[in-house]
Design brief:
CATH class of the largest domain: Alpha Beta
Strand content: 15-25%
Number of helices: 16
Largest sheet: 7 strands, mixed
CATH topology of the largest domain: Aldehyde Dehydrogenase, Chain A, domain 1
Shape: globular
Number of strands: 21
Strand order of the largest sheet: 15-16-17-14-13-18-19
Number of domains: 2
Distance between the termini: 71 Å
CATH superfamily of the largest domain: Aldehyde Dehydrogenase, Chain A, domain 1
CATH architecture of the largest domain: 3-Layer(aba) Sandwich
Helix content: 25-40%
Radius of gyration: 24 Å
Length: 491
Amino acid sequence: MSSIQQFQMYIDGKFVPSVTGAQFESLNPATGKPWAALPEAGLEDVNAAVNSARNAFDKGPWSNFTGTERARLLRKLGDIIARDAELLASCESKDNGKLYREMLGQWKYIPEWFYYYAGMADKLQGDTIPSDRNNFFIYTRREPIGVVAAITAWNSPGLLLTFKLAPGLAAGCTFVVKPSEHAPVSTIELAKRFEEAGFPPGVFNVITGAGIPGAALVDHPGVDKVAFTGATQTGKKIAASTAKNLTRVSLELGGKSPNIVFDDADLDVAANGAIAGIFGATGQTCMAGSRLLVHEKVHDALMDRILARTAQIKMGNPLDADTEMGPVANAPQLDKVLEYITVGLQDGAKLAAGGKQDEKLGPMFVMPTIFTGVTNQMRIAQEEVFGPILSVIKFKDEEEAIAIANDTRFGLAAAVWTQNIHRAHRVAHQLRAGTVWINAYRVVSFLTPFGGFKESGLGRENGMDSIREYTETKSVYVELTGKPRDPFTLG
């Protein structure tokens, strides 16, 4: 037990245990052993965190901060994160088994979000509106939405939280964060950086645990907005729960994204993009290119390249610099991935690669798996696996490719591989997805809105669009004459 690191929640500027003293352990999926112990929050802890955020928003020092003052703290936080990126990346890799080098790349990039939104914090201006009555002056204000409950996923907890934090803090909101119980440690470590940066108590709170704290946050009347990243089914439940109090909600959910390769594509580049799209992060990303749509003329040539490179993927300890693919993040996800391999075989798809656990590395390591001969009606082509399973589907022309790509309840991302610029834009415009890459895959930026069509979510994160998700518009009418008006007429 002495080798297990102990962590506490962060509420009202203090690191605290749960009221009951209950704890849970975070398992390192690469070793199968616990490495961290954290508090299991209950209702009292949730109430304390929400009350702290509420007080900070309504009457704490934060409520009187100008946008310029908020921006100063955001920039300082960004600098501290840049300094400590290696520690934060190590925590995430031990929590969720993703490659340390990928996590480090994310944490080194995360400060850019705080710098970008710091630049917006003092520019949230309203408008003056011409009045249809000469005795009124009318203007609008952009005001912070209030207390935000941020509930994040286990696959990239720091980056996905930053998508919410940076614009929300710039707008003047306060936060209660509930990270996934499968990857909570980096969020606790981030709280220490908030303290060092000088944020007032209550602006940033962290509660940990499974089940109770997340549900209690969503239903809490003191929460003004829920910002969630995770599974679509969970997102639907959250949307239904927030309707009870008409709590604002944004949802970044799942995907079944098509990677479309036309017959004029550079096959070496497309093969690399296909592999990155599905086997990067062990396929555990909402934007995974899990459906590879290939023109029938180049199907065999492309698959030769993909299968050859897939056979060379180095699996192993995610902390090692030369590892290319790590373990599945947790036991429930492992069961799900293995079940879909069985489903694919039962539905008649051909197993071209992988399809089993790596016995040498351990049970959490699933070999990169490729199914060919897939039809778009199969479950492995319609349901999100969130693991290293690629479904390859042939198409004969552009019209069929677009029809197959859009024949899904999801709409998060897509890619088009072609050297024909006219086709590239033509197809991109017809795809029902929130992000479309042309001759690229898995690229995000603080500058660019990210979110889904259809069942892939509500709202947008990143870019200028995101800060609107954390503000309300208030209209103000100013009567200019000071004279009494007829109380029974309008205006």
